[in-house]
Amino acid sequence: MTRLFIVLVAVLTTGFSMYTSAEETDTPVNQEYAPLEKKAPIYPYVSQFNGIEGYCIVQYTVTELGAVRDVFPDDCSPVGLFEGVSVESAKEFIYQPRIVDGVPQSVSGVQNKFTFDLTGGGKRMDVGDDPIKFSFLKPNEQRSIDKRLKKADWKGLKKYALGRQSSNYRMLFFAGYAELMMGNSDAAYDFIEQFIFHEEEEVPFEYVTFSAIQTLVAHYYQTQQYEKLIVLDEHVDIWWFRLIEPGEVNRMALMIADAYGIAGNMEASNKRFKQIVDRASGDIADDDPFVGMARAALDQ
Predict the structure, then answer these.
(1) Which pairs with CB-CB distance under 8 Å and at least 24 residues apart come from 102-105?
(2) What tens digit of pLDDT does each residue of 232-254 get?
(3) Any idea what the Cα angle at residue 172 is, between residues 212 and 197, rounded to 5°?
(4) DSSP 8-state assignment for residue 28
(5) pLDDT digits over 59-117, tens only?
(6) In this model, does residue 10 exceed pLDDT 60?
(7) pLDDT tens readout for residues 261-282
(8) Is residue 297 pLDDT above 80, yes or no?
(9) Is 80 left (phi over 0), alpha (psi -120 to 50) or beta?
(10) CA–CA distance, 85 with 182 (Å, rounded to integer)
(11) C-alpha to C-alpha distance for 37 and 92, rounded to whole angstroms
């Protein structure tokens, strides 16, 4: 491949400062929120090397202090490549806060679009609209896993996965899945938890992670392990996976919201219900029964 000269075109404002000291000015009575500092994300190496271009729109809340919270990828293409770097970059944004009648206000639903564009020589790859299902598994690993899945060779899958889990900890999920299919639930959930709560890396955005989270959320809720479900929610941002299956993410969010309510944290419970409603859109929202359930919980 010809050497690529990279240009990251991000729809963002370059950093500048608008802070003034108390001696210089009084706090304004009214002020609209505005960006003060934004940092462009690093182009993911794998995407860059393979000539993959795309974009990612992230959505978040600007707090009363001008920080950013609750960042999630709202619309990204291709799905599975640019979400992580975009979310991490947006978390570092700094805003001047909105002030109404002298009182700082948070602002939800703020969006920022990052465009990942390659210029110069080199081949461009069109990966289509389908999500990148297993972007961190090598092709030979994927083939070996698929072969065992097709044959329902659960003992073989477990042996294969455990033999490679030291070099790719995602194999822990497949070992857990094999145990689950063999009826060994305790061992299965232990392996899957090891994958999700792995200490060396952040939880990756990919189909294998989505499958693991689905499995744990349903298990914790059905077995009334509500504290574990809350810990999982604090560890993983399930809204990332809304790009893959929004209905399933809403279903998981309902169980998480209920867990917070059972634990007595109604503020966190209502926040999850509100996120389901606020992040649904168009015909999907009207046809999704989980959105209706969230609205009913909020008495909307």
Answers:
(1) 102/27, 102/29, 104/64, 104/65, 105/64
(2) 999 998 988 888 888 899 999 99
(3) 65
(4) P
(5) 999 999 999 999 989 888 888 788 888 998 999 999 999 999 889 999 999 999 999 98
(6) no
(7) 999 999 999 999 998 988 876 6
(8) yes
(9) left
(10) 37
(11) 8
The architecture of the domain spanning 5-119 is 2-Layer Sandwich (3.30)
Question: pTM of the prediction?
Answer: 0.73
User: In CATH, what is the architecture of 139-297?
Assistant: Alpha Horseshoe (1.25)
* Tokens 């991490």, located at residue: 88
Long-range contacts of 9-18 (CB under 8 A, 24+ apart): 9/115, 9/117, 10/38, 10/40, 10/41, 10/113, 10/114, 10/115, 11/112, 11/113, 11/114, 11/115, 12/38, 12/40, 12/112, 12/114, 13/38, 14/38, 15/39, 18/96
The residues spanned by each domain of the chain are 5-119, 139-297
Strands (E), 63-208: 68-77, 94-96, 98-100, 103-105, 107-119
